[in-house]
Amino acid sequence: MNIVIFGPPGAGKGTQAQNIIKKFNLYQVSSGDILRNEIKKKSDIGKKVENIISKGDFATDDIINDLIKKVIINPNYRNRIIFDGYPRNINQAKKLELILNSDNQSIDYIFFLKVSRKDLEKRILGRVTCEKCNKIFNKIYDLNQIQNHHCGSQYLVKRQDDNKDVIINRYDEYMKQTKSVLDFYSSRSYFYELDGSEKIDVISSKIEHIITL
């Protein structure tokens, strides 16, 4: 099965995606992770993306779509993909369907995590990510887990774009663009809107229940 999980930056998409991956043996495709990998590799695309993100803007649709397509057509991931944070706008949503259809694939579930900007600020400003295992923690809510993290605290880093000005810009831009995506998906029988401000395990249970119905 293929799943789309989306919502504003910091809504918990990555955390929920990781839970779904473990439960259903899927492969996570995060547009953010793909872009950060390009930056880390210092590729031409990565250098271009780094300049865009540092200003609080998003990478262009063409860049993201091309990188996503490489994963979709990979036979190792066929019909076992969870799209985390993609599609972000109506053009990406339509392109995703074209790419999947061309490879005789489709979307089985769409989950939208709805969270207010106030809640997102608290989450993102306290967020740290493990460079070794890619697990995400919050310095406010996950203090015990951070202290006992098996990879070690030296791998926990704060992302460059996790600051208040960037958060506000990205949230407002996301909500402006995402309305068309919601309109595009919301009437479909496999679309589900969830309260992203609820506890992680509560959201996870709801998602697992829907998938196993």
Describe this structure in words.
- Helix 1 (13-24) packs across helix 9, helix 2 (31-41) packs across helix 3 and helix 4 runs parallel beside helix 5.
- A five-stranded parallel sheet has the order 2-3-1-4-8, sandwiched between helices.
- It is globular.
- It is built from nine helices and eight strands.
- Strand 5 (127-130) and strand 6 (136-138) form a beta hairpin.
- The chain has helices spanning 13-24, 31-41, 44-54, 61-72, 90-102, 117-125, 143-147, 164-185, 200-211, and strands at residues 3-6, 27-30, 81-84, 109-114, 127-130, 136-138, 156-157, 191-195.
- The chain has a domain at 3-115 and 178-211: Rossmann fold (3-Layer(aba) Sandwich).
- The protein has 213 residues and is of the alpha/beta class.
- The model has no long low-confidence stretch (mean pLDDT 87).
